[in-house]
Amino acid sequence: MRFLENMSFGQYVPARSWVHRLDPRAKVGALALLLTGVFMAERPYDWILWAAALWLCAALSQTSVAFLLRSIRTVLFLIVFTALLNLFFASGEPLWQWGIFRVSREGVELAWTMALRLTLLVLFANLLTLTTSPMALSDGLESIFSPFKRFGFPAHELAMMMTIALRFIPTLLSETDRILKAQLARGADLDRGSVVRRMKAFIPVLVPLFVIVFQRADDLAVAMEARCYRGGEGRTRMKPFCWRAADTAALVFCALLIVGQKLLNWVIG
């Protein structure tokens, strides 16, 4: 259970970096552009381009790539499962086959492509949460969605739910780690035996975890009501947003990366 000790996904790390000082709206927009480019990537030099972009973003945010890579542990099973699914069940002329499982050249290409896409998606998204406080992210998302309020879209409520969900990730990981250590101190064996036995051994962990989740949710609701929280109508921000030239430069840079990728594909063919 050591993976819980170094989990980085969903955490905010305060710093005075260039990325930290960007407007949260610019960071959300930049993330959307970066993910668009990642999902358009197919060839090896495309992945080199986006890996270099990730390294540059990490350097500008004063975040080590090693610390950033820890977030992969959260979704490693999903990445491996998706890659294997595409590897064994993608259409194409089979290179190897055993029963319903077959490996084709198209399947191999699709497997590593999907694995790289999911990996970069998680890393770029984690970079956003590492450099943006939950409150700033909530205000930024609300500002982005605010034009849709006239159509009845609950911009403030959606932004608040997303922020609370992100904020609770490190809290839940911390509580899970605490419960695991308590169970191990009582002699629980969670790492041995068959899959069924391990699942049964986790029941004493999951039950108190669910109880704690509901307790934390109730405490949060009471705290919000005690502070007279009534939704987003008429609420103001302690720190109003100020769009600067650096925010525009960040969006332009991300857009130029997509243009550069398309030009590279056109030149190389």
Question: Helices and strands in order, then pairings?
Answer:
Elements: H1 24-40, H2 44-60, H3 65-69, H4 72-89, E1 94-98, E2 101-104, H5 105-131, H6 134-145, H7 155-185, H8 195-201, H9 203-226, H10 245-268
Antiparallel strand pairs: 1-2
Keywords: Cell membrane, Membrane, Transmembrane, Transmembrane helix
Transmembrane segments: 47-69, 76-98, 110-130, 241-260
Membrane topology: Multi-pass membrane protein
Could you walk me through the main structural features you see in this protein, from its secondary elements to its overall organization?
The chain crosses the membrane at residues 47-69, 76-98, 110-130, 241-260. Pfam families: CbiQ. It is a multi-pass membrane protein. It is found in: Membrane. A hairpin with a 2-residue loop joins strand 1 and strand 2 (101-104). This protein has 269 residues and is mainly alpha-helical. The protein folds into two domains: 23-146 and 245-268, no CATH class; 154-227, no CATH class. It is built from ten helices and two strands; from the N terminus they run ααααββαααααα. It has a two-stranded antiparallel ribbon with strand order 1-2.
